[in-house]
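Sample entry (370 residues):
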Amino acid sequence: METAVGTLRKTPLNPVHRELGAKMVAFGGWEMPVEYSGLIAEHMAVRTAAGVFDVSHMGELEVEGPGALPFLQRVTSNNAGKLADGQAQYSALPLPNGAPADDVIVYRRGPERFLLVVNAGNIEKDLRWLQEQAPGQCTVTNRSDEYVLVALQGPKSQQILQGLTPVDLSAIHYYHFAEGEVAGQPATVARTGYTGEDGFELFVAPDRAADLWRKLLEAGKEAGLVPAGLGARDTLRLEAKMCLYGNDMDETTTLVEAGLGWIVSLDEAKGDFVGRGVLEMQKKEGAARKLVGFEMVDRGIARHGYPVYVGDEPAGSVTSGSYAPFLQKNIGLCYLPAPRAAVGTPFYVDIRGRRVAARVVPTPFYKRPQ
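Predicted structure, serialized as tokens:
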């Protein structure tokens, strides 16, 4: 990946985005495309056909060696021991207080070889944290510069991608992956994503990325495939209630508070891990606050950071909020005291000095048809 002191990093696909006329913005230290044809058009394309995203700003950390699995069991929240070769798992790197240093996807490439995909702004922090946990009989190596990550998402993703690969995509189940070729290039094909739709994430070498990107767009043209930016990625993940690190969770919010207790394994086979005591207690007794989904009752869009009130009492702030293009509603996420977090609970969001009515609703806001 290109980089220079005091400047934004650029993915290998940066020139391609500029050729396509993408609007570029700074994000997590990277120059990234926020939109091409428009956020709403890109969002709707992913929900109804397909979109392709450059997510090469994400990081890849390799954990390798005979002690790799015991180490991951100790530093992640989910039970990595349940993974088979070719399987992936959503997990987190918990801190002693039960909050995540990051949320990650763990890919098992072999019994002694795992790949962790981490958030762009946390690569160095995560690497340092993992190395501080005394890996022992394994190594933790930053492989981020060796990969470009392209996400093809939407109900027509399999149809589009199958024409470019001999890999049997129907045999790759959700959160599994396979090695093969895509558009004549060596690739890892993972059935994962961050949009709430079916789709694939493709790991390829940086010098092969531009060719892959162009061939995907050409192959998907008739099916309605469009290039999509970070703007649509954000509204898509919000409709699906997928948490964004740094907004909906951070080092001050425990995994249970963030509604991620399902990736906290208390299995006996899992054993002890960082933060287990706090998380076990909260799973049994409940947390004092809870991340909830809400929709606006009155007109107004709740944005990140807007104050939230239950009655006249301050209750925190909006963690994520936007107009939801597919649902055609104004929605968001925020933390509320547990006794006031039930579905249907009314509260207020302060939108530029005006308190606007909202209510807690079931999540995910959107669930794709099966």
